[in-house]
Amino acid sequence: MAVITQPDRPAGRGRPLTASPVKRRALEAGVPVLQPPRLRDPGWPERLAEYRADVAVVAAFGQILPKAVLDVPTRGSINVHASVLPRYRGAAPIAWAIIRGETETGITTFQMDPGMDTGDMLLRETTAIGPEETAGELSERLAGIGARLLLQTLEGIDTLPRIPQDGAQATMAPRLRKEDGWLRPADPARDLVNRIRGCNPWPGAALLTPVGRLLIWRAHALPGSTTAPPGTLLPLSPPGRGQGEGFKGEGFKGEGPGGARPDRAGELGIATGSGILLPQEVQPENRKAMPWADFLHGARLEPGARVTEPTP
C-alpha cells in the first residue's frame, strides 16, 4: 500500500515548500508516500508494480495517467469525480457547474482509461446545488458523498456493471485561470452571481473600481431595469421614490436569497446587462474581506461611479 501525491509546493508567507494534506495524513498513518513530478516519466509503472496493489483510487490528482500506470493494479484504477458524468469532464467540475448556472451535480465513480474522465461509469449519485452555495462549500459537501460512494464501489468492484459514457452528452470543465474570475458588468446580474459563487474560494471574482481591484466573494442579483450603463453604481430606490438614476424594480422588500429583507433605500448596487448586482462581501487589494457598505464608505464611492472588467 502507498499514497501517491503531488510534490511539495511553495505556499503561504515566505513561500516555503509545503506538503499537501494528503501527504500529511498518509505520514500520520504510517503509509509510504511517493511524489512523482510526472507519472509519465520512465520507470514509474515498474516502481508502482512493486507494491502489488489490487486497485488504485484516484481523486483530483491533476495529471492524465498513462495506460501503463492505470493497468498496474490487478483490478485497474478507479476515479472519484465531482460531477454526473459525462457532463463536466476535467479539472474543475464543481466551479464550472456553478458558473454555468446548474442546479444539480453529483459524484461519479468510474473505471479509468487514458482519456480525460472518459472511462466506464460504476456508480453515480446526484445532489442539488444550493442557490447561494459556493464552489468551496459544495466541494466540502461532495467530499462526504464521494467517500461514501467510493466505499460502495470498492465493495462491489467485481460485480458492478460498467456503463459506457455517451460522449455526445459530454461537457468540459477545464482548470480555472485567474481570468475566469473577471466580472463583465454587461453580463446579466444572475450570471455574475453564479461566477462569483463558482470562483469562491479560487480565483475570486474581480472588478476594477476607481480605487483599485476588488474581489467579490458573495452577492445577490436583483431583478428590474435601469437605463444606466452597465457598471454604474446606483442607489436602490424603492418604487415610487425617485432618486435620479436610481434602480426601479423588485427585490427591496420581502423574500429573497437571505429571507425577508428591509427597505434598501440608500444602498448602492451595480447596473448590469440585466438586473442589478448587489455585492454582500468584498475584499479590496491587500486588505481583509468586509461588507460592501463598509467598502463604499471607505472608498467614498457615490452614485454614478463606474466599475469595469479587470485588465491583465
Provide a compact summary of the structure.
The protein is of the alpha+beta class and 312 residues long. It has helices spanning 21-28, 44-49, 67-70, 93-99, 135-155, 189-198, 292-299; strands at 3-4, 9-10, 17-18, 33-34, 56-58, 77-81, 104-111, 121-128, 205-209, 212-222, 233-235, 268-271, 276-284, 290-291.
Helix content: 10-25%
Using the alpha-carbon principal axes, give the shape.
elongated
Instruction: Give the tally of β-strands.
Output: 14
Integer-rounded radius of gyration:
23 Å
* Mean pLDDT over the residues: 91
| H/E topology pattern | EEEHEHEHEHEEHHEEEEEEH
Strand content: 15-25%
Structural class: alpha+beta
Regions with pLDDT < 50 over 5+ consecutive residues? 239-244, 250-263
What's the total helix number?
7
Q: Kindly, what is the distance between the CA atoms of the first and last residues, rounded to a whole number of angstroms? A: 46 Å
Largest sheet descriptor: 6 strands, antiparallel
Describe the structure.
The protein starts with a strand and ends in a 13-residue tail after the last helix. 21% of the residues lie in helices and 21% in strands. The protein is built from 7 helices and 14 strands. A hairpin with a 5-residue loop joins strand 13 and strand 14. It has 312 residues and is of the alpha+beta class. Strands 9, 10, 11, 12, 13 and 14 form a 6-stranded antiparallel sheet that branches.
